[in-house]
Design a protein that fits this description.
5-stranded mixed β-sheet; Aspartate Aminotransferase, domain 1; 12 strands; binds pyridoxal-5'-phosphate; Aspartate Aminotransferase, domain 2
Length: 380
């Protein structure tokens, strides 16, 4: 009989990626049948699934069990995008009058959600360096938002210390949300480090092939249930076809992350020696114990002012200038025009975001070709 992998003991990541959630599969295939129907006949009103918007088909259950197993969480919810996942968590758990601490310079879309949407619902979001959170907490501080590897500076963070400090300062009251998009569960499991909720833009490394927009939340049973019940009334769960595609993409997550990490490190090491580079943002030797499988493929490079970065990307042979990341092929973007576009120029400058800054997503090519490409394109 097939083992039940629908729990936290699904084995090591490489094993969990092949088997977790498998007991939910419908049909006799090695791969679960796609539950395409929007609705399902039932004689028992408590029976599931009945309606696919409620997100409880076998395709959802297999995927969510897999996500929970990889993050060592109790449960997970798959959403139609990373942004849908984020707003489901914040709308479900916040009330007007609450205060939220957010990592300064977090992903631009989340930044926009906090400033343009949550603010209209009476929630105050304070952006501040994570090191200062403990002294900024207030009696109404309810949630705190951080990234395990930051966007766009690719800075790995000490998630354990940050969560511990902000929890201690609030007697455990604050709910910490860790956006793990740049790391994926293979590189970092924030729940094991003290975070309460993991947010993944599964569009990125989890799916890994740049062909599905999707997101996920992983947490303990109680938090997932609260969020799921409210999110059902808002809509925004992932459709079944995309569940199946995401699951297929995830089968190779382990091998992909190993290759992204090896290539990312080799790229960063070479860029540090390149004369037209001022600074390379990649990894942190002091945090290697929290990222034992490496720092992934995201690497941000500040080029010398003599380099026209837009022209460089245009003349590159292999690297496409696109705002998304974490696909199998190497891509790059200028955060000034993409992720941080909505921020005022003065704010961008204060944070060190200039037109010389290029965020690379190093793919699965032979990295020597990518390095040669960047050197040639920037030396033109
Ligand atoms: N979090 C991070 C760090 C991201 O980079 C993104 C998207 O780029 C998101 C969240 C939002 O995810 P999605 O685009 O899947 O809605």
């Amino acid at each position: 009989m097939a083992q039940d992998f629908n729990d936290k003991n699904a084995g090591n990541d490489a094993t969990a990626l092949q088997h977790a959630g498998g007991n939910f599969r419908v049909g006799r295939g090695l791969v679960g049948a796609l539950e395409q129907s929007v609705t399902f006949e039932t004689s028992d009103p408590t029976d599931f699934p009945v309606y696919a918007r409620l997100g409880n088909t076998a395709n959802h259950q297999e995927l969510e069990a897999m996500l929970a197993a990889l993050h060592h969480g109790d449960d997970a919810i798959a959403f139609a995008s990373g942004m849908a996942a984020a707003n489901a968590a914040y709308f479900a758990l916040l009330q007007p009058g609450d205060h939220v601490l957010a990592q300064e310079n977090c992903y631009g879309g989340i930044h926009g959600f906090f400033t343009s949407v949550l603010s209209r619902w009476g929630v105050e979001v304070e952006f501040a360096p994570v090191e200062t959170w403990a002294r900024r907490v207030r009696p109404n501080t309810r949630m705190a938002h951080l990234e395990s590897i930051t966007n766009p500076f690719c800075k790995p963070q000490d998630v354990a210390r940050i969560c511990h400090d902000v929890k201690s300062a609030t007697q455990g009251r604050v709910i910490t949300v860790c956006d793990n998009t740049f790391a994926s569960p293979v590189l970092c499991k924030p729940l094991n480090l003290g975070a309460d909720i993991v947010l993944e833009s599964a569009t990125k490394y989890l799916n890994g092939h740049s062909d599905v927009i999707c997101g996920a939340l992983i947490a303990n049973k109680e938090l997932v249930e609260t969020i799921r019940n409210q999110a059902r009334l808002i809509g925004g769960f992932l459709n079944t076809t995309s569940c199946a595609m995401l699951l297929r993409g995830m089968r190779t997550l382990g091998v992909r992350m190993a290759a992204h990490s090896a290539n990312g490190r080799a790229f960063a090491d070479t860029m540090r020696e390149f004369k037209l580079v001022r600074r390379v943002h990649y990894g942190d030797p002091a945090l290697e114990r929290f990222f034992p499988a490496g720092f992934g493929g995201m690497c941000t490079v500040e080029f010398d002012p003599s380099v026209d970065t837009v022209a460089m990307l245009q003349s590159s042979k292999f690297i496409k200038n696109v705002p998304s990341l974490a696909g199998t092929e190497t891509t790059a973007t200028l955060p000034w025009w993409s992720t941080n576009r909505m921020q005022p120029d003065e704010e961008k400058k204060r944070l060190g975001i200039s037109l010389q800054l290029v965020r690379f997503s190093i793919g699965l090519e032979d990295v020597r070709d990518i390095i040669a490409d960047v050197i040639a394109a920037s030396s033109n």
